[in-house]
Write a structure and sequence with these properties.
alpha/beta, Rossmann fold, 8 helices, 8-stranded mixed β-sheet, 258 residues
């Protein structure tokens, strides 16, 4: 078997969680598996919808610093002795593409905001005064918002969104967890057969693709769409939740691990 050289893990619900009384469970099994794999040379990338500052907050939960943080489903940062360093060519292009997208989508975003205000209870999420995402009251409400957005998206070229449970972020269609992982692989010279990817929610679907990662897994708490995708691609649907499920998946690949 080809050795794993790159692990792309979603954070919330995959690397940590589930939550009990406001506290995220951290799997000792996963901590051990990751340490053993990294000792063998595998690189760890957190591939998340979190921003970099929320990754830092999240890492207070988990006793290991990743080699890479792929943040807000689109940017790449490498951990160095000086802290996080952006993969500048990719992040700069990503910024330029989003600047252009949000300019072109200004009218559409204003209409989306009116729809949310008048017909939904969801909250708008803003950055620098610009509508960048939505937070629904519950999954049912987000299901309806997604139905509405699917009809609207085609009005502006490359206008898209990423959904993670009740959270949604608007984005350029080219950027998602799959393309950002591919960009990292290209820069590191790592192949899909050397890559493991795991996630639990809708925004993970683009990286749960054998063209990007040939070792796929999801924890038992994943949404049905994720389980179905992982199964269809011959990946592993764990019967344990969160990090315990991911440790289970890694031990299937490496039975002798740690
Ligand atoms: Mg998740």
């Amino acid at each position: 078997m080809t050795d794993l050289r790159l692990l792309s893990l979603d954070f919330d619900g995959t690397m940590v969680g589930p939550w009990l009384e406001g506290k995220a469970a951290v799997s000792e099994e996963l901590v051990k598996c990751l340490a053993a794999l990294r000792k063998r040379g595998a690189l760890l990338a957190i591939n998340t919808g979190r921003s970099l500052s929320l990754v830092d907050q999240g890492m207070e939960l988990f006793p290991a610093i990743p080699d890479f943080a792929l943040t807000t489903e689109r940017e790449i940062f490498r951990w160095t002795k000086e802290g996080w360093e952006p993969f500048s060519d990719w992040n700069q292009q990503c910024d330029r593409d989003h600047e252009q997208l949000f300019t072109e989508a200004a009218l559409l975003l204003a209409e989306i905001e009116t729809y949310i205000l008048n017909e939904r209870q969801a909250r708008a999420y803003r950055e620098y005064g610009r509508l960048v995402g939505l937070i629904a009251q519950n999954d049912d409400e987000m299901d309806r918002i997604v139905e509405y957005l699917r009809l609207q998206c085609s009005r502006v070229a490359n206008f898209s969104f990423q959904r993670n449970s009740i959270y949604l972020r608007f984005c350029h269609a080219v950027y998602h967890k799959g393309s950002v992982l591919k960009a990292l692989q290209t820069r590191l010279g790592i192949q899909p057969q050397e890559t493991f990817a795991a996630g639990d929610n809708f925004n993970d679907l683009p990286m749960l693709d054998p063209g990007i990662a040939q070792h796929l897994a999801c924890p038992s708490n994943s949404v049905e769409e994720v389980k179905e995708t992982v199964r269809r691609h011959g990946g592993f649907v764990a019967d344990l939740a969160g990090g315990d499920g991911i440790a289970q998946a890694l031990r299937r690949i490496y039975p002798q691990l740690a």
